[in-house]
Amino acid sequence: MGKVTGFMEAGRRIPLRRDKIARVGDWQEVYLEWGDGDARRQASRCMDCGVPFCNSGCPLGNLIPEFNDFLYHGNWEEAIHQLHATNNFPEFTGRICPAPCESSCVLAINSDPVAIEMIEKAIADRGWREGWIKPEPAENKTGKKVAVVGSGPAGLAAAQQLARAGHSVTVFERDEYVGGLLTLGIPEFKLEKHIIERRVDQMRGEGVEFLVSTNVGVDITHEELLADFDAICLSGGSTVPRDLPIEGRDLKGVYFAMEFLTQQNRKQRGQEFPPEETIDVYGKKVVIIGGGDTGADCLGTSHRQGAANIVQMEIMPRPSETRTETNPWPQWPTIFRTSSAHEEGGDRDFNVLTRRFVGDDDGNLKLLECIRVEWVKSQETGRFDMNEIPGSEFIIEADAVLLAMGFIHPQHDGLLDDLGVKYDPMGNVAADGTMKTNLDKVFSCGDMQRGQSLVVNAIASGRRCARQIDIFLMGDSRLPTVSGYARPPVMAAAAPGGG
Description:
FAD/NAD(P)-binding domain, alpha/beta, disordered C terminus, Fumarate Reductase Iron-sulfur Protein, Chain B, domain 2, globular, 5-stranded parallel sheet, 499 residues, 32% helix, 16 strands
């Protein structure tokens, strides 16, 4: 590396966050601009380690030491080329990825890791500013047509790779905007939507066709899809939310997190909703059930809507501040984390089970009846069992509850059942080692195939699927393999919360 002693001379630094009082008054990105010198100084911390575990810690197999070296030497253009060699959308992962690469950084054994995620963001943003990121249409067309169903990160990655391989690609999206949960699920303050739109414009320049407000299975039948395309990539999300079927669930004021988040993102686009459908927590007492990233997104959104009081609850214990002996490097660290939304306010509580929602005579939510629990390791199975603590009952007043407990599997009724795809034991679309389903020419990737996971896993899955479809259509493929380690579908930081 260019700065052999860099890791001894500079500490971990990331861009500063905007003042928390100011930022809750708008929907703009939380982080301030990172200076070129700060980014290069951070890149200098990348060690000349014999085995760069960050490569395998990243599901995409990003060439992290390489782009850090180019950045340190001021060669930003080559740095973005290195990033794009493995990652179609570094401006996405640089903003919303929990950075498993950083937990695998060799520096993290006994120090703070290199700020890889923010380095990715800085390189990608510089690439866009300088005009280095442009459409890369295929020189030769194959005459093959591929349908990509779902425009989330997996579908977008698969579509871009397939288009660059020379295939004619049509992306079907049932919502009115391209991007899946990137557009409708992630709040604006974490990922401003113009960042997605400029990448979609690049893909249009590469020949990808996008059909929005098109529900495959309804607006176009599965028979038409099979007849019109040479291959099909099922890349929808894991969209069926985990519910909390307790007494009072049907009270007015109890919502799924995605009902809340997607409506706010639509409001940001100028859409209006009738009063009876509007979810607005201004001046309200809010309880968020679920301690993962989606719960934090609800927290930040509630702050910006002007909630009077917010409590985020989790059924699991509060994680430790540092790694435990059973969670060594380079594993993903199951530690206590504070997001920008937590920094902005609200209370957090752990080991809480919600027993009942209670409402008034008009059917409006008024309070939650809860009890504290403990997790005891079974001597027989070795697993931790949840036990209620006698006498620990308590109530929480609430005008709104947001259920942020994750997702269980993709929607079965409609396209998937009509096609007749098989499901794995978790209810996801079953696929073999080539990402092919039980149906000829039908492949699957992303959360639909592997279960609820991270954006970086979705991009990696989409890239793998594109290569396998290319091999299926052409006999071989010049698309790159994806060498990163495939982590479990749901990591601890994004694990669904409990009831």
